[in-house]
Amino acid sequence: MKKLIIFLLLITVPIFAFDVASVFHDNVQIFQDSDNPSNAINGFQDIVSAYDLGEIKGPDAFNYYLQSMEYLIVLYSNKGDTKTVHTLFEKIIRSDPGHQLDKLFISPRIVQDFKSQRNQMVGYLKIECPVPNPDVSAGTLKLTPNSNGLYATLAGDLTLRIGKENYEPVNRNVTVSVGKTVDVKVELIRTLASVTVLTDPTGAQVFMDGVLMGETSGSVPVDYVKDHGETIRELGLNPSTLSNYFVINRVESGDHVLELKKDCYKPVRLTLPKLEKRDYQFKPVQLERSIGYLIVEAGADDQAGDLFVDSRRVGSLPVRDLEVCSGEHLLKVAFENGTFIKKLKVEEGEHRVVKAVPKPTLLFAGIKSLDSNLSIVQQVKKSLEQQFQKIPFYNSQTDDSYISAIDGLLERDRKVIGNIRKDYGQALIVFGVEKRVKLKRYIDISVLNTELYHEEKFTLDPANPTSEERFVHAISNMPRLVEDTAGVAVIRDPDRSLPVVISSSVETVQEGDIVVSVNGKECADEASFHKALVVPETKLLLERAGASLEVVVKVEVTPVVMRQNLNSLSYNSAYLYFLSKIQFPGTDVQKAGAQLNLAMCNLRFRQFEQAFDTLSMIQLPDRPGISAGTVLYLKGVCYKEIGSWIDLQTLYKNYHFNEGATVINSRGLRVRSLIDFTFEYLRKQ
Question: DSSP E strands: which ranges in 289-439?
């Protein structure tokens, strides 16, 4: 009973809410299994009505339409409703004059009644045509031959249309009487050619003159295997993987090109010259495998990463001799500290070696719109996506699925951020929220990263392109890690428009010297002076007390430390940049520069313990400029920020490094002066 109730619930829902096949089979089950088969009447009637109203269409729907009426005939006959039964007989005959009631569930008496009514409505056509199996229709009815080759049709005056694919159709007006047979002779004129092909294996795309016609499928017919066994053996084909016929109709006469393509197989190109108006069946085409191999290794021996090829995970690094189809592929390796993404082309037989070095990910989670007016949001979103793709430091990804999690991101929900880190590794997260201020629309852009959980905000004015430019600049233009320095500090002499030395740790260069040229090139200011320095030695032409002298100075690469209060910089972005440079340093000096600047980011975000730990790992020589003294001073800043004054004084009292040590760069403030200032400040407190 419970089963019956479920079926009754199903058939009370409008037919267009269901798959027709499912509704049909559900009602067949009611007809077969229910204690009251008449409960299926409504379901079958719904299918008939839906087809009559045009709500369901196509060959499959027509078959369900006829079969539903067959079940209704039985159900109404069981109820003794002969009027409805004969109405359904007529509907079937008018829909398909040649239809046979030959189902096992239909009684012989009903079958005989149906034949009797059909004999009162139909006549027959005998089509004589040299082209076998022509298509015959009378009005909207498609006619099919019976076992005697005759076409049953409704009696009356008819306009026949007789044709076949690739032939010019012919119209004939005939009068058909009930029970009589009319002979119809026609000649069909061939107008187009057809091309038939089989492939081994199946599933090959078929192109005719560059146009995709479909792909081969199915299994080869048994008759073909019997008739062409010698050809199959000669070509070395496997009948179990050989496709069914693939027929291309409506082919114009003349020259054509047939192409067969399948992933992991060599494409096949066949020239078909001077085709005539006839059927062509070519020998089966065997496609040859075309594969290459990928060898993917991490950039560092101790790095673990998961490899995805064309979005499919294939394993953990290292991956050796991975078989892939020849052609283009998208590689992605998910590391703990970022991702590696590369598009590449693998040639047939090639063993392609790829070193996977991760980059941080720039994940753009989209912009949350204020209302249904999306024009500004979409415009800004598209512009940002294009610019993010150009930042070489990041693998830029857009994932709109996180738009629903923006509220969580604004609250720095560690679960949401943890999910992003799991999917994208170390990532800079960028998202926006549209707002209105005095009728104008603005977009607040938030930036944070998966390592710090500290948000930065930028406001974009869609009417002012420079606001967007400033934002992109803030996340993409990273501070320098190192500079070339010669132990000489200069400023521009406004009277001479030349650099003048203001301090020097080089014996041959004195304070007050005018720098006439650097390596033969005249410099106008501090910036051009340092740009002209060349490692390991540089010639300076100096002017001292009216006399010229030439000296050679030693040039070294030394770290540069950024400031803590740069409004033009995203420190979230800088943090990931410096972190990656520590993980994959170019030189020891570059690594030290990255560590110093990473510590400055920690100080910016008031992560003093992390800053102190990072500084403790830095090893720099004791010399003028950015050096061991710089590191000691910055450690003292960490003590100062957490209020540990005793530790600060102890650290600074033990300062024994070079008196020329500086902060920021080699021309920055002297560490000794800053320490003295600190002690003076503490004394006054």
Answer: 291-298, 305-309, 312-316, 319-325, 327-335, 338-346, 351-356, 361-368, 395-398, 427-437
